[in-house]
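Dear support,

I submitted the protein below through the web form. The confirmation email said the job was done, but the results page showed an empty box. After a refresh the structure appeared. I'm attaching both so you can tell me whether what I see now is the final result or a partial one.
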Amino acid sequence: MHAITIPEPGGPEALVWAEVHDPVPGEGEVLVEVAASAVNRADIMQRQGFYDPPPGASPYPGLECSGRVAALGTGVSGWSVGDEVCALLGGGGYAEKVAVPAGQLLPVPEGIDVRRAAALPEVVCTVWSNVFMVAHLRPGETLLVHGGSSGIGTMAIQLAKAVGAKVAVTAGTKEKLERCAELGADILINYREQDFVAEVKEATGGAGADVILDNMGAKYLDRNVRALAVNGRLAIIGMQGGRKGELDIGTLLAKRAAVSATSLRARPLEEKAAIVAAVREHVWPLLGGGSGARVRPIVDRELPMSDATAAHRVVEESGHIGKVLLIAP
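What the results page shows now:
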């Protein structure tokens, strides 16, 4: 088969479409013939040499994929050859085939094309596990999402609205904020021109956000805590703004607030399987392909998998809204 390899860490040009050995599904695994994968920030970090795959995972980038079951490893039940699936991966999505633990498979939702389903597993599992399983967003509460037009952001908006929450977003352009509004965002904040702490406080009558989903890390830590409501919960999922910040414990105590930080890729298989099972139970019934669906994948563009270099450039330049897909041959 062919896969995107990284002979040496570097810029987007470090990604090389090359012939490699076919994966073989082990016990409890399923071999998926890949239809599409999607670009995530973790893939960019891996390409740069900063984020190695967890032990036992494929060395190739790609944290999600969609396709069809090609073979079953020993001990697998509930799936058949030919099933259309999408999957959460530890790596290997940028390839024509990938072996996946059966607990990380999801059926392609009804009404969604098999290729577009590649836009779902990583963002849905990230949002559901952080916003709902950890931060426990409830109906009537306010969620602040940083990077509202990203793949994570567009999914967080839709899921929060589906459960009856109010949504505030930050983004850097008018176009991106307009797209967030189309998905249901209530409070639109241009982070280049506005102070998100002041805007969220004003929009909530001084209360603040009950839950904040943050991809920036250190750069936003102090302001995020100040933007939290009493009993608020800050969920950190990225470090685009640095890894070391100063935390005012006094403010945190006064608000009886909580700060959590999670990653998905390196979790044990049983934890990933539990998240995938929760997503299948709670999110999959909301999904559909049409504009009237309560939740749908937001795809910015599709590019050939062999041209992953161009796809990485788009994501690094933040020139997209939603997900950038890589289509397998």
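Response: this is the final, complete result; the empty box was a page-load delay. The radius of gyration is 19 Å.
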